[in-house]
Amino acid sequence: MKDFVFSASDMPEGDWRRSLYLGRIETAAGPTPILIRDGIAYDVSRIAPTSADLVRIRGWRKTAGTVLGPIETLLSGAQAPTLLSPLDLQCVKAAGVTFAVSAIERVIEERARGDAAAAAAVRDRLEARIGGSIRSVVPGSEDAAALKATLIEEGMWSQYLEVAIGPDAEVFTKAPILSTMGWGAEIGIRSDSSWNNPEPEILILADRDGVAVGATLGNDVNLRDFEGRSALLLGKAKDNNASCAIGPFVRLFDETFSMDDVRAAQVDLLIEGTDGYRLAGTSSMAQISRDPDNLLAQTMSEHQYPDGVALFLGTLFAPVEDRDDPGRGFTHKMGDVVTISTPTLGRLVNRVTTSKEAAPWTFGVSDLMRNLAGRQLLSPTNQG
Q1: Which of 101, 136, 188, 294 could bridge across to 358 with cysteines, CB 3.0–4.6 Å?
Q2: Rounded CA gap, 292 and 330, in Å?
Q3: Residue ranges of the Fumarylacetoacetase-like C-terminal domain (predicted)?
Q4: Model confidence pLDDT, tens digit, residues 204-217
């Protein structure tokens, strides 16, 4: 997709050339991991044929690789390679209901049975009763248990409140490996969804041992009608063709960027419709109910991810402003351009289409292995 042209404005603000970034591009030979150092992109496929390998061997500490040129120049020309999602073999997980506002909105979806027209009345009632208390309570604490007991007595308890303030976070698998979309790609909404929205989030990338190595931006597309009808429809609501966008790059943790920067981040969202519609929103990571380290630890506690794992941390953004009919709130229209940005991670830009109309996912793990073998990149000597 060449609707958008990548430029330096899509990189983090300030002196971004001081930091290290992991990415992937589509070359004539096939998908290729790149490392960006001092603003220069390097083809590191001879060192690490996948981005998962690069993390495994900490490839950014080794020889840089083959010089491709300044990253903004590499990606802006007429013959520029496609910028892919920076992830390949990593499992993509997501933590849900990690902000108080999103918890209330999930309860609204449940109570309204996925009906956008019924949401406003439910929202007013829930906000009046639990808005303040749920924002101040620490998940898994004695105060949270007391609030739960009170809400059960009043018949207001919900499975979404359980994961919002209970001891266990909601963690689910968002997308199969190799299926995520990159910067500039079309992102898919199910064609039979009538109430949906983007979810602007930060992802943490961790190695096979659960050690966080960096962060990036993502869009964990949300189908409010499907999940609202039943939480058992979460898989159908979340995992569809082209329904997960990630990028533009993973910013690696170093002396210029750390988990504390993730905790302090402000994630901005801009939706621009072909009809002139415009909606802006902001998520402050300072308002997250569960610390990123805790969410990552819960993800890794009873499972192994030998090729690493990427974890969506959740979003504060839940658009309630009416787009068309009064009381129906926001939902996407085809052609919407979604821009997710934060000063420390840059900008992720995607255009909305349906999952049926988006380019089908046809390049799987066996295709990747055959491609890498054909390029003679699978020799142990090429993997650190």
Answers
A1: 188
A2: 28
A3: 213-352
A4: 999 999 999 999 99
